[in-house]
Amino acid sequence: MAEEARLSLVVLISGGGSNLQALIDACAGDLPARIAAVISNEANAFGLERAHRAGIETRVLDHRAYPDREAYDQALAALIDDFRPGLVILAGFMRILTPGFVRHYRGRMLNIHPSLLPKYRGLHTHRRVLEAGDAEHGASVHFVTEELDGGPLVLQARVPVEADDTEESLASRVLSREHIIYPAVVRWFAQGRLEVEGNRVLKDGNALDAPLVLGEREVLPR
């Protein structure tokens, strides 16, 4: 596929970048998108090395060099816009974004969160699931709004919580499903099959009354 026919992505990371790697692999296949740049607020994020290996441009913008969130987010938006992305991807970007930043990318910024939203917004989701004695856990892909982990949901993956699960074992199983559902949602967006109208997600022109759900052994919905 010609580069101009591919959706341009900018991916924001803070750490290891395993979801970034899933997107890199998908773009190397038949995902009609290209990663224009990977930006991190942490210079030692391993995800930057993943990008380097794939020949993707990288930038580091250290939040510690800015007096407040607003100043940082203004600089970050300017850096992102230099690459003219059609979609901004949050892939383990450990920053709470300011309302102005979020509004700037309204309808074209996605996040993946390791819980079955709206349950367990924020951090330490695997621990909280185990402490609550939940029977299932999972991950959610959603459009980003000003509400933390509260934007319109697109697709969730569910996994059962086993009796002998630890935070680490549960996190590992959830992460393996994240690597499936995140590229899938990016694919739908790149194909022009996904949009946001107000707080509703439309897939193939039909409003989703609830997020699509992928069970542990289910085939991904097309």
Structure, described:
The chain has 6 helices and 11 strands. The chain is of the alpha/beta class and 222 residues long. The protein has a domain at 1-105: Rossmann fold (3-Layer(aba) Sandwich). The chain has an 8-stranded mixed sheet, covered by helices on one side. Strands 8-9-10 form a 3-stranded antiparallel sheet. Helix 1 packs parallel to helix 6 (167-190). The mean pLDDT is 95. It is an enzyme of class 2 (transferase). It holds the Pfam family Formyl_trans_N.
Which descriptors apply to this entry?
Rossmann fold, 26% strand, 222 residues, purine biosynthesis, three-stranded antiparallel sheet, GART, globular, alpha/beta
Q: Give unreliable regions as ranges.
A: none
CATH superfamily of the domain at 1-105: Formyl transferase, N-terminal domain
User: What's the CATH topology label of the domain at 1-105?
Assistant: Rossmann fold
CATH architecture of the domain at 1-105: 3-Layer(aba) Sandwich
Work out the helicity level: 25-40%
Beta-strand portion reads 25-35%
Backbone CA Rg: 17 Å
Determine the mean pLDDT.
Answer: 95
Largest sheet: 8 strands, mixed
Function: Catalyzes the transfer of a formyl group from 10-formyltetrahydrofolate to 5-phospho-ribosyl-glycinamide (GAR), producing 5-phospho-ribosyl-N-formylglycinamide (FGAR) and tetrahydrofolate.
GO molecular function, one term: phosphoribosylglycinamide formyltransferase activity
Catalytic activity: N(1)-(5-phospho-beta-D-ribosyl)glycinamide + (6R)-10-formyltetrahydrofolate = N(2)-formyl-N(1)-(5-phospho-beta-D-ribosyl)glycinamide + (6S)-5,6,7,8-tetrahydrofolate + H(+)
Active site: 113 (proton donor)
